[in-house]
């Protein structure tokens, strides 16, 4: 018995009606965001492919509806298929992103009508289906899964907006500046076990489960994500040209693609500029760097005399409260994120300055683990001990393996419904169009005191 615990289920004790309300609100918020992202451009822009890396926006929209129909209307609701001919078109496993524009996709008006019809049926199902007795409907899990799916595609659509050329069409207030005094560069996380993953978070996905104890040796972790200013020192000191900072795979990639700076950056006579959702601006030194690949993150860390954190280190820094031995839902505690805690949900269209969210810091004093930028870790994506695929292998399990690296914490483009201390994202180490940055870690002294 170590006395380590996991925070309690936040929906525990709520009536079925309260859970239904919670699910309906989450679905409605997701739809409002999908509508913002698709109404921001004209029909021509909706059907166009803005980058080979991305689907046309209208594909994402109808795919959101198709998955919702599959799980909520047909599986949970037991209703007949509405448009069986759509199943193949919007099956992400059947068609690569690059091929999607040539499919006979629904047009913008049809896609909007389809997702609206699906949503009306899904709400009918949510009204009548018992939220118990079946794992898929327990605590409205399927509705939570579909909410997260829509929010994840909204973040993908936001990345498509970033790749789109042309005048700015999305608008939001500027992200906050620093709201702390000078922060220490690093925080020491003492050696010892903690509870990783979850067995109680009701809408956690299969890859976050089950909760299990992991022993982590003492390590130092950067207090905030690496900023543009710090990254520029690496760049200006020739970091991209010096083979020694790069892994073999990283150097091959960097050389083959002639990578010399984060994506969307360019050198001007007076300094570095970036393009952000159609706006040209000087690169802000105090914000976390974003649009870097795993390989660039790894090279920076080597240059800085550090390394990337493992996934377990990241989660311990984000969740572990040494005072009580509890693994919290979030760094700041167990309550859902508010605008004071973290830069989430596309409320701002960039990361916020390092030190902008003192209320979101962990008990040990690590800042901005949630929101701003996804953080690359050194870990491959895999199942936890006792992993069971649910509700289908294609959600996570088919991606397990060394070709994907785990990212943690969510970005300014991630909604609160789709992030928590246990949430795991994964992607190829070459990806740069996602809203990814990183922070560094290094080993602690081998004799650093155990916490328990
Ligand atoms: Fe999807």
From TrEMBL:
- Give the keywords, sorted: Iron, Metal-binding, Monooxygenase, Oxidoreductase
Binding of gamma-L-glutamyl-L-cysteine, residues: 97-100, 427, 431
Boundaries of each DinB-like domain copy?
26-157
Q: Where is this region: Disordered?
A: 319-345
Cofactor(s), by name: Fe(2+)
Enzyme class of the recorded protein, top EC level: oxidoreductase
Domain Sulfatase-modifying factor enzyme-like: residue ranges: 183-442
Which residues are Fe cation-binding? Answer: 63, 149, 153
The entry lists its GO molecular-function terms as:
gamma-glutamyl hercynylcysteine sulfoxide synthase activity; iron ion binding
Please name the pathway. Amino-acid biosynthesis; ergothioneine biosynthesis
> What reaction does this catalyse?
gamma-L-glutamyl-L-cysteine + hercynine + O2 = gamma-L-glutamyl-hercynylcysteine S-oxide + H2O
The catalytic activity of this protein is classed by the Enzyme Commission as 1.14.99.50
Name the protein family. Answer: Belongs to the EgtB family.
- What task does this protein carry out? Catalyzes the oxidative sulfurization of hercynine (N-alpha,N-alpha,N-alpha-trimethyl-L-histidine) into hercynyl-gamma-L-glutamyl-L-cysteine sulfoxide, a step in the biosynthesis pathway of ergothioneine.
Which NCBIfam families did the record assign? egtB_TIGR03440
> Could you tell me what this protein is called?
Hercynine oxygenase
What species was this sequence derived from? Amycolatopsis taiwanensis
């Amino acid at each position: 018995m170590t006395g380590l615990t996991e925070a309690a289920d936040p929906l525990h004790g709520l009536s079925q009606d309260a859970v239904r309300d919670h699910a309906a609100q989450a679905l409605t918020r997701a739809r409002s965001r999908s509508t913002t992202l698709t109404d921001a451009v004209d029909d021509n822009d909706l059907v166009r492919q803005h980058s080979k890396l991305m689907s046309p926006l209208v594909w994402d929209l109808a795919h959101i509806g198709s998955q919702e129909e599959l799980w909520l209307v047909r599986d949970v609701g037991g209703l007949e298929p509405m448009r069986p001919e759509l199943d193949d078109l919007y099956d992400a496993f059947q068609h690569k992103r690059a091929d999607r524009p040539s499919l006979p996709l629904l047009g913008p008006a049809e896609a909007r009508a389809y997702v609206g019809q699906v949503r009306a049926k899904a709400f009918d199902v949510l009204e009548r289906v018992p939220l118990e007795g079946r794992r898929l409907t327990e605590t409205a899990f399927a509705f939570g899964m579909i909410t997260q799916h829509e929010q994840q595609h909204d973040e993908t659509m936001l990345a498509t907006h970033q790749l789109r050329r042309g005048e700015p069409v999305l608008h939001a207030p500027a992200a906050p500046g620093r709201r702390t005094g000078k922060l220490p560069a690093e925080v020491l996380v003492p050696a010892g076990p903690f509870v990783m993953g979850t067995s109680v978070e009701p809408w956690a996905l299969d890859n976050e489960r089950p909760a299990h104890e992991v022993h982590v040796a003492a390590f130092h972790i950067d207090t905030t994500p690496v900023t543009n200013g710090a990254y520029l020192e690496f760049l200006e000191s020739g970091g991209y040209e010096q083979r020694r900072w790069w892994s073999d795979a990283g150097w091959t990639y960097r050389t083959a693609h002639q990578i010399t700076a984060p994506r969307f950056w360019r050198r001007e006579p007076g300094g570095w500029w970036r393009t952000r959702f159609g706006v040209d601006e000087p690169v802000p030194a105090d914000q976390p760097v974003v649009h870097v690949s795993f390989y660039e993150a790894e090279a920076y860390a080597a240059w800085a005399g550090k390394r990337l954190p493992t996934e377990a280190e990241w989660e311990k820094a984000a969740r572990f409260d040494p005072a009580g031995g509890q693994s919290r839902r979030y760094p700041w505690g167990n309550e859902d994120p508010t605008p004071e805690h973290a830069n989430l949900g596309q409320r701002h269209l960039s990361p916020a300055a390092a030190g902008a969210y003192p209320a979101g810091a962990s008990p040990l004093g690590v800042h901005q683990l949630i929101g701003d930028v996804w953080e690359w870790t050194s870990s491959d994506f895999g199942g936890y001990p006792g992993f069971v695929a649910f509700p289908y292998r294609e959600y996570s399990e088919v991606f397990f393996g060394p070709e994907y690296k785990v990212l943690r914490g969510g970005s300014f483009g991630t909604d609160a419904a789709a992030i928590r201390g246990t949430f795991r994202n994964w992607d190829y180490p070459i990806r740069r169009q996602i809203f990814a940055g990183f922070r560094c870690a290094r080993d602690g002294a081998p004799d650093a005191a155990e916490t328990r």
